[in-house]
Amino acid sequence: MSKPRVIAFYLPQYYPTPENDKWWGKGFTEWTNVGKAKPLWKNHYQPRVPADLGYYDLRIPEVREQQVELAREAGVTAFCYWHYWFGNGKQLLERVFDEVLESGKPDFPFCLGWANHSWYAKTWDKTGTDKLLIEQTYPGEEDAKEHFSFLLKAFKDPRYVKVNGAPFLFVFEPRYLPQQYTEWFRTWTKEAGFPDIYLVANVVWENDYNKYLDYGYNAILHNRLAKPRETYWAHVSKTEKYMDKAIRYIKEKLIGIPRNALDYNKYLPLLIDKKEDSKIEVIPEIVPQWDHSPRSGSKRITAIFYNSTPELFCQHVKEALSVIKDKPEENQILILKSWNEWAEGNYMEPDLLYGKGYIRALRKALEDF
Known about the structure:
alpha/beta, TIM Barrel, ten-stranded mixed sheet, 36% helix, 18% strand, globular
């Protein structure tokens, strides 16, 4: 088997911006929620404390170089930088990627993930009282051309990830992106001299992803973290489902573990679907750990994987590798969610509990396989 590509989602929200100062308070960054997190039950691993890199500021180029060193050590092939374009030329958190693009450093492959969703001040409950901060819009062809001009500059960078020569672009909310945009982007990419664009859709709610392929996407990623509890229930008997509900209710009342919390070891087999993820147009997603409580607190909606360990993650990666081994070399890709989503407890970077445990686990899985 040739060496597979591991593309890790990369969050740029680790430096203050005027918008975040206005919405959340002076100096707000992702670390604000990470640092104030509290354990919800005995032995709940919170707060998560970064080790080797500390509470870094991504405006510092040396920090970005250190991240790349760790990524290489883990076997990560590229970073997929989250990119925010809200329409009419409005961007947020663009500084980090702009500096990476302009400076040529770090010398490490990258691609972009368009996080095309509105931002809200969320209450993390079901009251519907979330406050809109900035709306995602699709004004039309003029704005699409301006957006594509930005993308094209990135596509032309020799570090940019390509599949059979086609630039890789991940779309977070394909449900809301007008089909005309995918057609425009494909046409303009070809006019720029590329054989095509490789569009990847993040599929959350629909089980049938064929419509995204019909819309012009080349591949999809099944986001199985969107409804973890419902996903688990779909794979067990009715009796096991009701037993699971009862056990979670009891744990919440007696221990404080939220009902949406899941045992990572128990859910692990559902993160990879051998039949679906072995298809050439499907990219499997690997997940080291997950704990949304720094953002959502103790609300019932809180999503948590507890009992996650580097050893279990290593098993998970090996399972994912086994389903892509027979794909064409260019399509042997895994998406790693994520490199540094600290406020979602979803990261690879060293912390005080496991150190480089997850980095070594990924490296071991790749080497063993």
